[in-house]
Specification:
- Helix 5 (85-98) packs parallel to helix 7 (120-133).
- The protein is mainly alpha-helical.
- The protein has helices at residues 3-11, 14-34, 36-70, 73-80, 85-98, 103-116, 120-133, 135-146, 148-158, 160-177.
- It folds into two domains: 3-69; 72-177, no CATH class.
């Protein structure tokens, strides 16, 4: 696939175009309503944010591509495919729990696994686990601020959520494919 075809297929999709248009309209509205100085401050702040986040996104996307190319599809399908069952669910939940970082790290990994053969329901379970059971967040934020009893109870209540999400995704996938 040529670079131009890849850019057209991957980068110029509807969501990219929508958010580009939204950013341009927001910038114009800011300039019109608050003036040039407010626009410059916002543009500088957003530029600094992009510079701070870009390396994380770049590394995560490289890892996503490596996952896709390094892991043979048959192994990914065996461990994370639609026939992986409870083993796949357990791997997804554990993976989601131990994945550090924010969405800039987790989502490219999911894309890599999904394109390498992981099933939709396993990816849903992974993201749900990462969202509600993430140990990094628990250790750094929740325990110091909320205390052990609160965090333990929250984790116990949240533990079934990736399982429920996996089951619902599996059900919806079957209905859609039927």
């Amino acid at each position: 696939m040529s670079v131009i075809a890849y850019i057209k297929r991957e980068l110029l999709d509807r969501s990219t175009l929508f958010f580009t248009a939204l950013a341009l309209c927001s910038g114009l509205a800011l300039w019109w309503l608050r003036g040039e100085e407010a626009f410059r401050v916002a543009a500088y702040s957003s530029g600094m944010l992009v510079l701070m986040i870009a390396p994380i996104i770049l590394i995560a996307m490289v890892i996503s591509c490596y996952v896709r190319k390094l892991l043979p599809t048959k192994h990914v399908e065996r461990w994370l495919g639609s026939e992986s069952g409870l083993r796949g669910l357990a791997v997804a939940m554990l993976g989601g729990m131990v994945t550090p970082g924010g969405p800039f790290a987790a989502f490219p990994l999911v894309v890599g696994f999904y394109r390498a053969g992981a099933s939709f329901e396993i990816c849903v379970a992974y993201l749900t686990s990462w969202t509600v059971l993430g140990l990094n967040r628990v250790l750094i934020w929740e325990l110091p601020f909320l205390g052990f009893d609160f965090v333990l109870l929250r984790l116990l209540i949240s533990l079934p959520l990736p399982i429920i999400a996996w089951m619902l995704a599996k059900l919806l996938t079957r209905q859609r494919n039927a």
